[in-house]
Write a structure and sequence with these properties.
Largest sheet: none
Distance between the termini: 52 Å
Order of helices and strands: HHHHHHH
CATH architecture of the largest domain: Up-down Bundle
Strand content: under 5%
CATH class of the largest domain: Mainly Alpha
Radius of gyration: 23 Å
């Protein structure tokens, strides 16, 4: 992967030609092709999607393995470390924009769309429409014809509050682990990292139970009007990001157990920590705007 001799630290890193980008594009083709046909009713397409995902995961495993080997053999210098930091920063910025779009959609719906539908201008079209939020009564929020089944909204007690405590605690344990790594206390770092991973996994489990409760006891679904769609889109995408962040921390912990990272050089750890703290901040916004307001 590198044109530099093993053990050296080049100022500018020039990678050798690699098969990984082409192989990743091959897998992504089957992912997109399979997904597009599956959602259009082609049952066979789900197998293409599964093949593409497995292929892509295999490529990423080899790609990350090669990158880790290059890092551990001293082929990355200060310029590469700087580029990694900028790359992770821009990636997190793109995630901020991603969630910002959903938060904006929630705000626009509550502050503009729903009041506009209940205005005098629309009274002739929907005389019985009730412009209230959340949309829990027949005839409210995008259902003037009463086609949305009755449902109950999700309150902050107690599952969302428990998950808030779990995520905030995980941010503390991760920070403790970071300080211990900087003090070169590897054993203690690994212990606190496993605690952080366990807290993240517990969050995902609690949210899964929350969704089961919503569907089977509250009749709250993705099709439950504007409230249901925004609730599941926001919390669902956040839950997926928690799962990804938890897997990142899990693999960082395995690398720590293999002796990777030092007190002075551990951006792989820091990048995962940045992502996890971002996930924490997004959840605080969700907890306030979705569950309390």
């Amino acid at each position: 992967m590198s044109t530099s001799a093993p053990g050296t630290t080049p100022h500018y890193y020039v990678p050798a030609p690699s098969r990984h980008p082409a192989f990743a594009a091959f897998g992504l083709f089957f992912v997109i092709f399979g997904a597009a046909n599956w959602i259009n009713g082609q049952d066979w397409a789900k197998w293409l999607l599964a093949f593409g995902m497995l292929w892509l995961f295999g490529v990423l495993f080899q790609w990350f393995r090669d990158s880790i080997h290059e890092s551990e053999t001293g082929q990355y210098g200060r310029k590469i470390d700087l580029s990694f930091r900028w790359s992770m920063s821009w990636f997190i910025f793109s995630e901020v924009m991603f969630f910002g779009a959903f938060f904006t959609a929630l705000w626009w719906m509550r502050s503009h769309s729903v009041p506009a539908l209940g205005s005098v201008d629309n009274a002739l079209l929907w005389p019985d429409f009730k412009a209230v939020w959340p949309s829990v009564a027949p005839g409210t929020t995008a259902s003037p014809g009463g086609i949305i089944e009755p449902f109950t909204t999700m309150t902050p007690f107690w599952l969302p509050t428990i998950n808030t405590a779990l995520l905030l605690t995980s941010g503390v344990t991760l920070t403790i682990a970071h300080h211990l790594l900087r003090e070169n206390k590897r054993g203690a770092t690994i212990l606190w990292m496993w605690i952080t991973v366990l807290l993240g996994a517990t969050f995902v489990g609690v949210q899964g139970y929350e969704y089961f409760h919503a569907y089977h006891e509250l009749n709250l679904k993705l099709t439950s009007g504007a409230y249901g769609s925004t609730f599941f889109m926001l919390t669902g995408f956040h839950g997926f990001h928690v799962l990804v962040g938890m897997l990142m921390l899990f693999f960082i912990t395995l690398r720590l157990m293999k002796g990777h990272f030092t007190a002075d050089k551990h951006f792989g750890f820091e990048g995962a920590a940045w992502y996890w703290h971002f996930v924490d901040v997004v959840w605080l916004g969700l907890y306030t705007l979705v569950y309390w307001m």
